[in-house]
């Protein structure tokens, strides 16, 4: 990620990503607060990821004979895992950061 205040490249590690569930980050160079900007493309990518997970779960239920609870568990695990990895990748490489207003 690139800090919008000082243009410093801030690596988004898993601990930094999981430590800020609301998406706000602090630049280690200038202490500026920022978060990734959310656009329609982000929502499109998330929708496609959930659709792919749902299609795989329905296929497994129909063709492999999985019971409904197992298909739901597959959907939750695959969708959650896929979305977590996709969101981190988008935050780090694709989404632009915007400055957050100061606290107070």
Report on the architecture of this protein.
- A hairpin with a 6-residue loop joins β1 (about 25) and β2.
- A 3-stranded antiparallel sheet has the order 1-2-3, with no helix packed on it.
- It is about 55% helix and about 10% strand.
- It is mainly α and about 100 residues long.
- The chain starts with 13 loop residues before the first helix and ends in a 5-residue tail after the last strand.
- The mean pLDDT is about 85.
- The protein has helices at about 15-20, 40-65, 70-95; strands spanning about 25, 35, 95-100.
What topology does this entry show?
Elements: H1 14-19, E1 25-26, E2 33-36, H2 40-63, H3 68-93, E3 97-99
Antiparallel strand pairs: 1-2, 2-3
Helix pairs in contact: 2-3
Sum this structure up briefly.
By secondary structure, the chain is mainly α. The chain contains three helices and three strands, in the order H-E-E-H-H-E. The longest helix is centred in the C-terminal third of the chain and has 26 residues, at 68-93.
Major sheet characteristics: 3 strands, antiparallel
Low-confidence runs (pLDDT<50, min 5 residues)? none
Mean pLDDT: 86
Order of helices and strands: HEEHHE
Q: Please tell me what the overall shape is.
A: elongated
Report how far apart the termini are. Answer: 25 Å
Observed structural traits:
104 residues; mainly alpha; three-stranded antiparallel β-sheet; 3 strands
